[in-house]
Specification:
323 residues; alpha/beta; D-Maltodextrin-Binding Protein, domain 2; Double Stranded RNA Binding Domain; five-stranded mixed sheet; 13 strands; binds the ligand NCc1[nH]cc(CCC(=O)O)c1CC(=O)O
Length: 323
């Protein structure tokens, strides 16, 4: 099947999503294709007061776009890889993984606090949108008060300014892509907070049966080292299961030709924490990710899963046709 002209590129409407979509658009245009943007609102954009972990749907930022892809209304969709569930709906393909931005988390200080993350006073309040960051912050410093915050990156920064929090933790990549790096006080070392699966990378999806388009996306947008890292991290996530309801982190990178995968599963209150690192050939990342997941679960991560998922542990679905 030939490639549509113009190509309709589906994206969420947030400032960050549009920036990311425009990066992809420019690449495709440079390769000689016309591209039209189609903005689609997702449940994650609407339910801005509910913590993502409570919506309980892994596909909260992708389902409406998946549906548009399957129905043919859009040809490709651009997402933050972090927002794409570890199992892509049947009929769709993750055709390319774009080059990764800095995968680390950022500490952003309240305007009145001129210290760094390591200078946080006893009992300081830190806001974050993720269970992973909460669990790891509390593993490090059980005296901290960690509070939830939601919304787009700029909304979160606004909330910080109006709050009595000492600071906030969010992804470096989002801030950098929005031109807001000035707000980054610290890029947090992954040895302190393991980044989220896929954080900082872009995922480009299309229909599985569109061979010519898949080839084009791979040739123009795929970045092999980021792809290998993503495969390892996503295999880890899939094996553990539970999506964003589970406090887990996994970060892979290529070091001198070797893939290094560092991952953890932590109790939300920081009381328990299982973590290990594996090295392998870049092509073997997925198998090693699955194995590391099995090992961390066996070490005790399994109990953490039981605690956070309880009865909902079976039967989660990311079908785009499920309400
Ligand atoms: N969950 C929302 C989301 N999805 C992707 C990013 C940041 C960019 C990225 O990780 O690529 C963010 C914001 C954040 O976590 O601070």
């Amino acid at each position: 099947m030939s490639i549509s002209d113009p190509l309709v590129l589906g994206t969420r409407g947030s400032e960050l999503a549009l920036r990311q979509a425009n990066v992809v658009r420019s690449r495709l245009e440079a390769a000689g294709h016309r591209v039209e943007l189609e903005t689609i609102t997702t449940r994650g954009d609407e339910a801005t007061d509910t913590p993502i972990s409570e919506i309980g749907d892994e596909a909260v930022f992708t389902k409406e776009l998946d549906r548009a892809l399957l129905q043919g209304g859009v040809d490709l969709a651009v997402h933050s890889l972090k927002d794409i569930p570890s199992t892509v709906p049947s009929g769709l393909a993750l055709a390319a993984i774009g080059e990764r931005e800095d995968p680390r988390d950022a500490f952003v200080a309240h305007p009145s606090f001129d210290g760094h993350l390591h200078d946080l006073p006893e009992g300081a309040t830190v806001a974050t949108a993720s269970l992973r960051r909460t669990a790891q912050l509390l593993t490090w410093r059980s005296d901290l008060e960690v509070v939830p915050v939601r919304g787009n990156v700029d909304t979160r920064l606004e909330k910080l300014g109006e709050s009595d929090w000492t600071g906030m933790v969010l992804a470096v990549a989002g801030l950098v892509r929005l031109g807001l790096s000035l707000h980054i006080r610290d890029r947090i070392d992954p040895s302190l907070i393991v980044p989220a699966v896929g954080q900082g990378a872009l995922g480009i999806a299309c229909r599985e049966d569109q061979d010519a388009l898949r080839d084009l996306l791979r040739e123009t947008l795929h970045h092999a080292p980021s792809g290998h890292a993503a495969n390892a991290e996503r295999a880890f996530l899939k094996k553990v299961g539970g999506g964003c309801q589970v406090p887990l982190g996994a970060w892979a990178h290529i070091d001198d030709g070797t893939l290094v995968l560092d991952a953890c599963i932590a109790a939300l209150d920081g009381s328990e924490h299982y973590r290990d690192e594996r090295r392998c050939a870049p092509e073997d990342g997925a198998a090693v990710g699955r194995k590391l997941a099995a090992d961390l679960l066996a070490m005790g991560g399994d109990h953490i899963l039981d605690d956070v998922l309880g009865e909902s542990r079976e039967g989660t679905s990311n079908s785009p046709f499920r309400p």
